[in-house]
Design brief:
The complex is a heterodimer of chains A (331) and B (327). Chain A is of the alpha/beta class and 331 residues long. Chain A has 13 helices and twelve strands. Chain B is globular. The chains are: A alpha/beta (331), B alpha/beta (327). Chain B: Keywords: ATP-binding, Nucleotide-binding, Transport.
């Protein structure tokens, strides 16, 4: 059995807004195994990014607040650490890549300065040693002429190069967990392929676990070992990537798979999920997906189903699946 | 005989690069560099390429929203402009022509005026062209919004009250208000969520059928284009590298760039085996495009001739055009 590097237990993150409190992340359990790539999929506003910010304890204060749960990193609860200890974890044990590489890099400092800062802070590298390490890192992520780029500023680089610089920075201290929040969404397909290839290779080489947050199921199919699908703040389905793609059980996952045009033949009608994601202010009482579901039942309106494990770690939060399972069991 | 609704002949659009105190022109960004194609009536033509390859500029230049640098465009049997012959429609004629040619934009947040009500947005064109009076126009707007899947009561609301997908529906309703024959969709679903993308795409499909529309669909998403379009043009640095029916193009891509582009699509299933061609480097700057074939700096099959000579466009199968020295 693979060892878990990160265990999230019952995480609840709330935000206070002018219209009252909203629960962006609602009672989430998530395990990330050592050296494996875990995909977190969902539409905008479903709480994927808030989950990642919660792990890093970067939820914007004072509006946001982690009100319940545990985040165990190597059996140590990150939520119990004081700010100073947490700072030692960030960038060192756990690091993060963001969606928009231009806003994540500081425009007034050189690439070398920004990577070097991390190295100096966590590893105490200075001067020539620091510079050489920076060049080495840039080389590793496939940047051409790294000894020049190290003295350049972010605006001199293209989007794909900037994202590679971000990866170099994130991997500078050999973290055990890398959180990548939509790392390729802003990039073109050919550049996306380059960046994904690099991330996959480095994860294997350094045995780094990755939490890959994305809305692109293609990227998940490409990269991940395990997947969790989120809807309206909750995990609705979780499992091994093959199980999720070959045998999606939750109606939301099924709908997402069916609405991808790559598998639909020309002339066939694209199936789509009707309606929209409910507002966090105004959540349905029962299952959050019930208003859009193609197979709603009476109980779905009343009670939230539990996330139940079926076989092989495949977990689903759906009444229909649960009843089906019970029936088979009783027979 | 095929009925060509739109014919574009060697269209060019250069943007000047200016420098210094006197804004001296020091060069050109060749955003669109000599492209020709046609669209048959009732057809959906897809324009794909990476960012900065000139897809959107092509769309806008066709509509004469950007001043063309060269070439000609003929729409429905009438010339819109012909730069070489110094001919263009007068402003009034052009305004009339625009009724038949509408556009749906990418960013549903930027393309709707936040200070106008939805009713005003949708009826603006009808009132401007004096097709209906105010009351009739409002009725028509309600009808259109319902057709696009929004409640008729939306006409009183303002854009900020809607989500991205709903705003895009408003944009679509607006584009249909004048009963156009031809629509340019400039990445209409790129800014939307996956499940909403499918909704908007099926809506567009239905409307295209219902209103007998012809569509130029600009997108960077190859899966969507394959599914949605009849014929596809692949652009690289302002020029077409390959044009063909979507079946030809996806089953038998000829140009190395198209091959690389298709291989870069993430696989659809985790078990799928995919041979990947990873292109080296980035797209060169259009201000200083490489000599010869523009793709030669990244091409895996580059030969000496590619660095010197611009390849000719050849028809390798019926309706399948490729510009490459390999063939």
């Amino acid at each position: 059995m693979d060892k878990n590097i990160l265990q999230i237990e019952g995480l609840v993150t709330e935000f206070s807004t002018s219209e009252g409190k909203v629960t962006a992340v609602n009672n989430i359990d998530l395990n990330i195994k050592k050296g494996k790539i875990m995909g977190l999929v969902g539409e905008s506003g479903c709480g994927k990014s808030v989950t990642s910010l919660s792990i890093m304890r970067l939820v914007p204060k004072p509006y946001g607040n982690i009100s319940k749960g545990k985040i165990l990193f190597k059996d140590k609860n990150l939520l119990d650490l004081n700010e100073e200890d947490m700072r030692k974890v960030r960038g060192n044990d756990i690091s993060m890549i963001f969606q928009e590489p231009m806003t994540a890099l500081n425009p007034v400092f050189t690439i070398g300065y920004q990577i070097g800062e991390v190295l100096e802070l966590h590893l105490g590298l200075k001067g020539k040693e620091n510079l050489n390490r920076c060049i080495g890192l840039l080389e590793k992520v496939g940047i051409p002429r790294p000894e020049k780029v190290v003295h350049e500023y972010p605006h001199q680089l293209s989007g794909g190069m900037r994202q590679r610089v971000m990866i170099a920075m994130a991997l500078s201290c050999n973290p055990e967990l890398l959180i990548a929040d939509e790392p390729t969404t802003a990039l073109d397909v050919t550049i996306q392929a380059q960046v994904l290839e690099i991330m996959k290779g480095l994860s294997k080489e350094l045995n780094t676990a990755i939490l890959l947050i994305t809305h692109d199921l293609g990227v998940v199919a490409e990269m991940c070992h395990d997947v969790a699908v989120m809807y309206a703040g909750r995990i609705v389905e979780e499992g091994n990537v093959k199980d999720i793609f070959m045998n999606p059980m939750h109606y939301y996952t099924k709908g997402l798979m069916a609405s991808r045009p790559n598998l639909v033949k020309k002339g066939e009608r694209l199936k789509c999920i009707p309606g929209m994601v409910p507002s966090l202010h105004n959540m349905p009482k029962g299952c959050a997906f019930e208003p859009r579901c193609s197979n709603p039942m009476d109980i779905c309106k009343e009670k939230m189903p539990e996330l139940i494990e079926y076989e092989n770690g495949h977990k689903v939060r759906c009444w229909a699946v649960e009843m089906e399972g019970n029936r088979n069991h009783g027979r | 005989m095929e009925d060509r609704i739109l014919e574009v002949q060697s269209l060019k659009k250069y943007f000047p690069i200016k420098k210094g105190v006197f804004s001296r022109k020091v060069g050109d960004i060749k955003a669109v560099d000599d492209i020709s194609f046609y669209i048959n009536r009732g057809e959906i033509f897809g324009l794909v390429g990476e960012s900065g390859c000139g897809k959107s500029t092509t769309g806008r230049t066709i509509l004469n929203l950007l001043e063309p640098t060269g070439g000609s465009v003929t729409f429905d049997g009438r010339r819109i402009y012909d730069v070489e012959e110094n001919y263009r429609l007068s402003t009034e004629e052009m305004a009339l022509m625009r009724r038949d040619m509408q556009m749906i934009f990418q960013d549903p947040y930027a393309s709707l005026d936040p200070r106008m009500s939805v009713g005003a947005i949708v009826t603006e064109g009808m009132l401007k062209h004096k097709i209906y009076d105010k009351k009739e126009a409002m009725e028509k707007a309600k009808e259109l919004l319902e057709l696009c899947g929004l409640p008729a009561s939306s006409i009183k609301k303002y854009p900020h009250e809607f989500s991205g997908g709903q705003r895009q529906r408003i944009g679509i309703a607006r584009s249909l208000a004048l009963n156009p024959k031809f629509i340019i969709g400039d990445e209409p679903i790129a800014a939307l969520d996956v499940s909403i993308q499918a909704q908007v795409l099926t809506l567009m499909q239905d409307l295209i059928e219902q209103f007998d529309l012809t569509c130029l669909f600009i997108s960077h998403d190859l899966c969507v284009v394959r599914y949605f379009c009849d014929r596809i043009g692949v652009m690289y640095l302002g020029s077409f590298v390959e044009v063909g029916t979507s079946d030809h193009l996806f089953e038998n891509p000829m140009h190395p760039y198209t091959q690389a582009l298709l291989s870069a699509i993430p696989k659809s299933m985790p078990i799928e085996e995919k041979q990947r061609i990873i292109l080296q480097g980035d797209v060169p700057s259009p201000a200083n495009p490489p000599k010869g074939c523009k793709f030669h700096t990244r091409c895996p099959y580059v030969k000496d001739i590619c660095k010197e000579q611009v390849p000719e466009t050849k028809e390798l199968e019926t309706d399948h055009f490729v510009s490459c020295h390999l063939y």
